[in-house]
């Protein structure tokens, strides 16, 4: 710990829990008013955990089990409009079934917080992790954060309320949690006390936007071409403000809880003198870090950068730090059929973000870990090798599928 | 998950462990412990065990995490499932074992229901895997069982190296599940593990966990001690045990598979050759073909369509697909025509059809059947949760 880094102020207790239980603990400390639920793996652990907290008297909240995800997300959207702090979530095709509600929520600027337990979209019926479910809302105004472990599940849930409910933002936030690897694994995490959480997270206040008999307003009327563009422009303007709010929240979070890393948007791992790096989101950072340590021992100048906030996409921030590398291997736990180069979603966005750089690193893309398949340190070695060859100027294939049976 | 190597194939020396060392040789490296359990019934028990292993490792200033094998479906009654605890001396080593589907090698495999000793089928398609398939060289297989080492070695495959089979006397427990009271099984298992593998877990470490936990009292310490005292560990030599006839499943590549998620359907009258559900079974129905009144109730009610129809209009059981749910025995209107018997009484028979035995010599069949019933008849209420505190 350096001298400039302040010691965490909060009193914290260490507990062993899964990612979904960690989210539930944050829901408790955020004193959520309404949770609506509908079971689907791997999200459903959080619904059991919150139900237990309510049953044990540790949380006073309405717990509404809907008859399907569409109603589930509508319930929370409406509860949010009348001034309740809400929590909702789903996975895979359950999240897709709620899509109409997911689309309107950011337009109405309601700060619904959802946990998306990332799961492959059917068909085939599968419940392992893929990021395509959450990525489906990337253009709509949802703010999306991919967490690395159970501790971040807890931390980012608190961040989600703080950022989403800020009056400059007022957007829904999705906490994206890799199914199985985070939702179904227990690790030791630090849980702070109520007092310190209250210092970080102010009460939910919609101000004059609250739907209440004392404040007669109507929400979401029909509007035609003479209104829609201005409404979209308002949403666009708000989306421009999110990064600053995240920076403030990150700084306060770090001061109070002592966590959150150096940068709110990304984490750099052993990149100082790296020639080339791998780049990705979520739990794949664990095997990636194992690979980096191992190859560093052999003298390789390799590093890893983990993206935390996918929306807002930290384009300028990433361009500034990534320009110094010769090559970047982007790992996508998703697919985007027919996209430029037929690469993944993260690859395509990162390419766009780096286009204006005078000195652009060579970008290669890896698609792997689909449907819950494990991304091993050995697969990371393979990706590092291809990226290294790209850095050396070798003409390598732009997009490579890793770990698929030929 | 069948990637890189085929599912269940002989496990090469892992990069996660110190090169060439056996499970017990090096203390200061990560250790992985598996709990194999029956879905729903023992899910809470397995979760508690994993948690206690991690909490105990904190007492030696190590760290730990747990993994549920995600392709299992532990929300379904009786389905074999696995949960793992991984402990390591520091964060970096532990990280190397996290974000995994399952550990590649296990220092200790604990089996909470001995009817799984003859191998289990995952909900995913791995074929029927031996219970010790991922045991690390020199590792320990710990089973709760009232059977002998010799009896169990008839169904547990041999290894090319020495390993340890530790038995903790007892019957399958559902301790902690819903209304089932905690019966101390978790503590007894931890005590047994502390005796057999102090490099993984020391008795004093678990004792410290119990003392720190306000919800655990003195009787937990007694149960812990009883597990420590009662476990019977025996060194198993290389080549000792059943011949390993497990054939790893070979999955096709993407170019070989039919496009558009199409698989051939099972034709009328045929059974799915790829997925057999018999390892879900703790007990099996045995039928008296002489007292059967041919009412067909078993054939109608069986949820897995296990009952065949013979030319005599009798109903033998296709045991490859029988999950041992007991519905047939419940609906059969004839007393003792269908009787549920502990599945481990059928080591020699396996899933083989016994109807030809009755056709050849019905007297011999009855003698065989009566003996099985006498030895292994399952009275549900008495069979489960029979362990008492610190017995």
Could you explain how this protein is built, in words?
The complex is a heterodimer of chains A (406) and B (391). Chain A is α/β, with parallel strands linked by helices. Chain A has two domains: 12-257, Thiamin diphosphate (ThDP)-binding fold, Pyr/PP domains (Rossmann fold); 266-402, Rossmann fold (3-Layer(aba) Sandwich), CATH 3.40.50.920. Chain A is built from 13 helices and 15 strands. Chain A has helices at 19-29, 44-55, 69-81, 92-97, 99-107, 132-135, 150-164, 194-200, 228-257, 285-297, 315-322, 345-354, 377-391, and strands at residues 12-18, 34-37, 62-65, 86-90, 113-118, 143-146, 173-178, 185-192, 266-269, 276-280, 302-307, 309-311, 327-332, 362-368, 399-402. In chain A, α7 (150-164) links the parallel β6 and β7. Chain B is an alpha/beta fold and 391 residues long. Chain B has two domains: 31-236, Pyruvate-ferredoxin Oxidoreductase, domain 3 (3-Layer(aba) Sandwich), CATH 3.40.920.10; 278-382, Alpha-Beta Plaits. Chain B has helices at residues 43-58, 91-95, 149-153, 185-196, 203-212, 218-230, 297-301, 327-331, 355-360, 362-376, 380-383; strands at residues 31-38, 63-68, 80-88, 106-111, 120-121, 128-129, 135-144, 163-168, 232-236, 283-287, 338-342. In chain B, the strands form three sheets. A seven-stranded mixed sheet of chain B has the order 2-3-1-4-7-8-9. In chain B, β7 (135-144), α3 (149-153) and β8 form a beta-alpha-beta unit. Chain A binds chain B through residues 16, 42, 123-124, 127-128, 149, 178-181, 184-188, 283-284, 286-287, 289-290, 293, 372-378, 403-406, and chain B through 1, 3-4, 15, 50-51, 54-55, 58, 63-68, 70-71, 92, 95-96, 98-101, 251-255, 261.
């Amino acid at each position: 710990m350096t001298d400039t880094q302040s010691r965490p102020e909060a009193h914290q207790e260490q507990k062993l829990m899964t990612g979904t239980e960690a989210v539930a603990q944050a829901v408790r400390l955020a004193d959520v008013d309404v949770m609506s639920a509908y079971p689907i793996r791997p999200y459903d652990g959080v619904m059991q955990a919150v139900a237990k907290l309510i049953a044990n008297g540790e949380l006073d909240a309405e717990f509404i089990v809907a008859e399907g995800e569409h109603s589930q997300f509508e319930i929370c959207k409406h509860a949010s409009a009348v001034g309740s702090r809400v929590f909702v979530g789903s996975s895979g095709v359950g999240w897709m079934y709620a899509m109409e509600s997911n689309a309107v929520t950011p337009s109405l600027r309601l700060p619904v917080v959802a946990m998306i337990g990332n799961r492959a979209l059917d068909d085939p019926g599968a419940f392992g992790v893929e990021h395509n479910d959450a990525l489906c809302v990337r253009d709509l105004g949802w703010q999306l954060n991919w967490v690395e472990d159970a501790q971040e599940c807890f931390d980012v849930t608190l961040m989600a309320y703080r950022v989403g409910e800020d009056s400059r933002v007022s957007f829904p936030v999705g906490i994206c949690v890799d199914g199985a690897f985070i939702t179904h694994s227990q690790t030791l995490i630090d849980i702070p006390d109520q007092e310190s959480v209250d210092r970080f997270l102010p009460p939910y206040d919609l101000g004059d936007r609250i739907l209440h008999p004392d404040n007669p307003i109507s929400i979401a009327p029909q509007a035609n071409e003479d209104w829609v563009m201005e409404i979209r422009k308002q949403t666009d303007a708000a989306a421009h403000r999110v990064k600053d709010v995240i920076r403030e929240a990150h700084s306060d979070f770090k001061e109070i809880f002592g966590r959150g890393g150096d940068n709110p948007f990304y984490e750099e791992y052993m990149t100082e003198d790296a020639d080339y790096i791998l780049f990705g989101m979520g739990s794949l950072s664990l095997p990636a870090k194992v690979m980096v340590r191992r190859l560093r021992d052999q003298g390789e100048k390799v590093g890893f950068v983990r993206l935390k906030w996918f929306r807002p996409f930290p384009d300028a921030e990433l361009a500034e730090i990534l320009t110094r590398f010769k090559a970047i291997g982007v790992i996508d736990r998703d697919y985007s059929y027919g996209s430029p180069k037929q690469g993944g979603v993260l690859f395509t966005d990162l390419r766009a973000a780096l286009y204006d750089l005078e000195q652009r690193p060579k970008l290669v893309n890896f698609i792997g870990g689909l449907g819950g398949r494990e991304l091993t340190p050995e697969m990371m070695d393979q990706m590092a090798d291809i990226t290294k060859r790209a850095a050396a100027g070798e003409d390598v294939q732009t997009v490579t599928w890793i770990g698929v049976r030929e | 998950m069948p990637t890189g190597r085929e599912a269940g194939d002989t496990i090469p020396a892992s990069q996660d462990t110190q090169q060439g060392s056996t499970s017990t040789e090096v203390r200061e490296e990560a250790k992985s412990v598996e709990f194999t359990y029956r879905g729903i019934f023992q899910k809470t028990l397995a979760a508690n065990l994993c948690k206690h292993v991690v909490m105990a490792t904190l007492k030696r200033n190590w760290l730990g995490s747990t993994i549920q094998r995600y392709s299992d479906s532990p929300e379904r009654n009786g389905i074999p499932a696995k949960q793992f605890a991984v402990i390591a001396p520091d964060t970096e080593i532990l990280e190397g074992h996290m974000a995994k589907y399952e550990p590649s090698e296990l220092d200790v495999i604990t089996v909470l229901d001995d009817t799984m000793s003859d191998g289990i089928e995952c909900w995913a398609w791995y074929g029927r895997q031996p219970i010790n398939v991922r045991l690390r060289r020199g590792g320990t297989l710990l089973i709760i069982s009232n059977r002998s080492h010799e009896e169990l070695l008839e169904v547990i495959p041999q290894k090319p190296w020495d390993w340890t089979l530790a038995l903790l006397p007892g019957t399958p427990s559902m301790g902690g599940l819903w209304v089932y009271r905690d019966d101390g099984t978790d503590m007894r298992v931890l005590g047994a593990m502390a005796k057999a593998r102090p490099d993984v877990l020391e008795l004093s470490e678990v004792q410290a966990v119990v003392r720190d936990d306000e919800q655990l009292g003195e009787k937990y310490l007694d149960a812990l001690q009883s597990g420590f005292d009662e476990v019977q560990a025996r060194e198993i030599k290389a080549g000792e045990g059943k011949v390993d006839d497990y054939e790893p499943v070979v999955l096709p590549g993407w170019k070989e598979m039919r496009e558009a998620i199409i698989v051939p359907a099972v034709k009328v009258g045929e059974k799915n050759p790829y997925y057999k559900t018999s390892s879900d079974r703790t007990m099996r129905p045995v039928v008296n073909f002489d007292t059967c009144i041919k009412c067909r109730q078993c054939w109608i009610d069986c949820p897995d369509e296990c009952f065949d129809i013979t030319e005599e209009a009798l109903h033998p059981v296709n045991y490859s697909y029988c999950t041992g749910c007991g519905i047939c025995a419940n609906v059969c209107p004839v007393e003792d025509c269908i009787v549920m018997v502990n599945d481990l009484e059928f080591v020699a028979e396996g899933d083989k059809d016994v109807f030809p035995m009755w056709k050849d010599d019905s007297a011999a069949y009855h003698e065989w059947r009566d003996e099985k019933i006498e030895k292994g008849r399952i009275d549900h209420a008495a069979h489960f949760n029979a362990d008492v505190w610190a017995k």
